[in-house]
Amino acid sequence: MALDSAKKQEIVTKYGRSESDTGSSEVQIALLTTRIAELTEHLKIFKKDHASRLGLLKLVGQRRRLMKYFKRKDKEAYLKLVEDLGIRDNI
Q1: Mean pLDDT for the chain overall
Q2: Which residues of 11-48 are buried (b: 16+ CB within 10 A; e: fewer)?
Q3: Which of 20, 11, 17 is nearest to 85 (CA)?
Q4: How far apart, in whole angstroms, are the C-alpha atoms of residue 24 and residue 1?
Q5: Cβ–Cβ under 8 Å, residues 11 and 34
Q6: pLDDT for the residue numbered 1
Q7: Three-state DSSP state, 67
Q8: Predicted confidence (pLDDT) per residue in 35-78, tens digit
């Protein structure tokens, strides 16, 4: 369930600090959020796909750790990103 390169490039240009910035926290959180949304839709259809459910839980944990780090480093940018992505600030 990897993202296609066009969608990934669109996210990188929207949230990245430069054109080829793929490693910043903002980009990583946005990419993980997109993958989580796609996996959630997949699991609504295929309820017994437990392997994908485990992968989803791992992605959520990884995003949570990144968000915790990003909130600690730059709280204003973190709050803007959370509002832009439409995810909860429960860290």
Answers
A1: 94
A2: bbeebbeeeeeeebbbbbbbbbbbbbeebeeebeeeee
A3: 11
A4: 22
A5: yes
A6: 62
A7: helix
A8: 999 999 999 999 999 999 999 999 999 999 999 999 999 999 99
